[in-house]
Amino acid sequence: EAWGGGTKLIPLLGENGRISIDALESKLVSLPRGRPQVATPKVVSITQGTEAGTLYSLNQIAEISALAHEHKMKVHMDGARFSNALAALDCSPAEMTWKAGIDVLSYGATKNGGMSADGVVVFDETLLDQATFLIRRNGQLYSKMRFLSVQLLALAQNGVAERNARHANEMARRLAAGLSRVPDARLLNPVEINEVFVSLPARARERLVAAGYKIQLRAEFDNPHYRFVTAWNTSSADVDQLAGVAGGL
Description:
Blueprint: H1 21-30, E1 43-47, H2 58-70, E2 74-79, H3 82-89, H4 93-96, E3 104-107, E4 119-122, H5 128-137, H6 145-156, H7 160-180, E5 186-187, E6 195-199, H8 202-210, E7 226-229, H9 236-246
Parallel strand pairs: 1-2, 2-3
Antiparallel strand pairs: 3-4, 5-6, 6-7
C-alpha cells in the first residue's frame, strides 16, 4: 500500500495459499462502487507459485482472469517463483500468462539463480505508459540496467531457468519424502514447487539445532510448522542429510 500511491490491498480467503474464485466473486459483488469512502477494485493479483508452495492450474488462472475482466479489472501475476510453477505445470510461459488472461507479470529471477534483478512483462499495451511512470516514481529505474538485465537473458535462454527450477522442485519433493518418514511429522500443504511446510516434533527440532541447523518455528496457517525452501543449487546430499538428522538417523 505504501508503494501504490494510495492503493488498498484486500486479502481474500482460499485454500493452500490460492485465491478462491468464489471468495473473489463474493468480494466483488459486495464491494460498493462509486463511493469515495470505499476503494474501487482495479486489479486482481495472484502469486504463481504461491507463498504456500502450491500452484494455480491453467484453468484456475483463466477463471480468475475472466471474472476480473468481466468486472473491468486488470490481472497481475506475481511470478517470484514463476519458473518453478512453469516447470511443475510443464506448460509454456504464454499458456501460464497472457493466454490465460494475465495483463502484467512480475518475472522473478532472484529466487532462481539471479541477483538483484527481476523483470516486468506488460502484455496489455494500454498499460505501458503507466507502468513506465510507476517504475520511475518508485525508484526502480537503475543506471546501466543492461548489466542487471544480462543475467535475465542468460536465465531465459537455452532453458536455464526451467532447469534450475525443475531441480529445485525435485529437491523439495525429495525433502518432503524424507521428512514425512520422521515419526509424528506432518506435511501441511501439497508440495508442488520448491517449498516444504511441515510440522515436526520437538525432538526433531532439537536434533537439527544440535547439528547446527538454524530453523525457526512459524505460526502461519494456524498451525506451528517449519518452512524449508530448496534452490537451484541444493544437492540431494544436503536434502538427505537434513532429513536424516531430523529423523535421528
